[in-house]
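Consider this one:
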Amino acid sequence: MNTPSESPTPTEPSPNNGPSETVSIPTERPSIWKDMTTSEDWWAIWCAMLLLAIAFAVVWFGQPENLSELIAASSVEEVVEASAEMTAEGPVAETTEPAEEQQASEAEAAEEEPYEYVSPLKSFLAKPGKWTENPLDAVSSSWKGILGVFLVIASLFAFASQTRGKSASAFLTAFPAVFALATLAYWMSGQSVVKAYNLEYALWALLVGLIISNTIGTPTFLRPAMLTEFFIKTGLVLLGAEVLMSRLLALGLPGVFVAWLVTPVVLITTYIFGQKVLKIQSKSLNMVISADMSVCGVSAAIATAAACKAKKEELSLSIGLSLGFTVIMMAVMPAVITALGIDPILGGAWLGGTIDSTGAVAAAGAVLGDEALEVAATVKMIQNILIGVTAFCVAIYWVTFVERDPSGPKIGISEIWYRFPKFVLGFVAMSILFSILYSSLTNGPELVGAMISGSTKTLRGWFFCLAFVSIGLETNFRQLLPQLKGGKPLVLYVCGQSLNLCLTLVVAWLMFKVVFADAVAP
């Protein structure tokens, strides 16, 4: 995961404090109420819940009075069509109907499409469409929907920013430019030739941001709208409504084995490798890089840096490595998975267990399709749970074996809760809620399906696209080069990530394709 916006910026240590400043565990924690009203994780839940509530209310109150009859009639037509297909494939059936009348009725039936309930919001929320020669074709029929998405996200996130103590005006000043870049990414991915090569919006969004940040530099005024984690977390809570609880439980058990078995093995092995083989002098640097690479990127690095009292320069170096490799892996791994012919379920599990950033996992999974996205996001969020556990265990290890300072601060088990990524609770809660609505309401599948296809899935895609524009704008490769002096941190990261890639693929194959193959099959 990328750096939460409420965390202190780790890459800019105060010059007054000097290079010896360390990342420490806060002595006082905010109250639960304050945390729920100011924390980015909680606000991602509130924003997503509001969007889902409005989207479902519109679908519920906008449904036709005879929806059940329309669905039943459509089901009968599908059965008749299926029967006709079976008859056509089998021996010629005897019929007294004249050939001309039979052909006319078949033509009429072919023209009738099965009934599908569409959300009234569908025309008000859209993304640029496909185009071949005329670029205006991409927006000619969808510009109202694009404007609708802009107004929804701008107003919602401006309100959230103001409530969280940030500047709503600064966000609103910057957001149109960031949204325009996301629109450009969608537009580029919609070109017919580009689309044929499966070069999805995530790649273009990342490239657009990277080109700006590594050439002219990212303008300072854009930073209030570069809410990478906020966009991603909100999108993932929206995704929870799409992943029914039965599916989540099926993916969860093998996901636990992939995330909770591989992660500690890679972390411990990488730390020992750094100390015994590479002889890295700073144990805290060794530990932060190991946790960053094996658990969940920047968030894990920040939590672990506090637990082992790492210097801010060490945290900056770890974050730089994580961001650089996240960009590379996000772009390369989907292509590798496709080239090797790995199916979406295994490919998604591999992505979820190896790419550092939750957002990068979601975008890379989306490139491979909804099925891969579902698996990748589930595995990653199971792995995210280990952030708090890892920080707690590292703190205990540091106090007990590395420092052995009896006067140092005592680490309570409540530290796990403070480090826990709260947006995961939102994902699970939405999965439970919409699973209940799906199975208990009359026409529940049609109502939930209309809500997702007509509004929330479109919004989720925009959130991911905005996040990857932000990642590109935040990543400057020139700033990473000075941090790689000596080469040992880079060697540590490459070797650790190589082990992570190999071990995760083996365990994911074993869990998703052998042990739990029947349970996770769509």
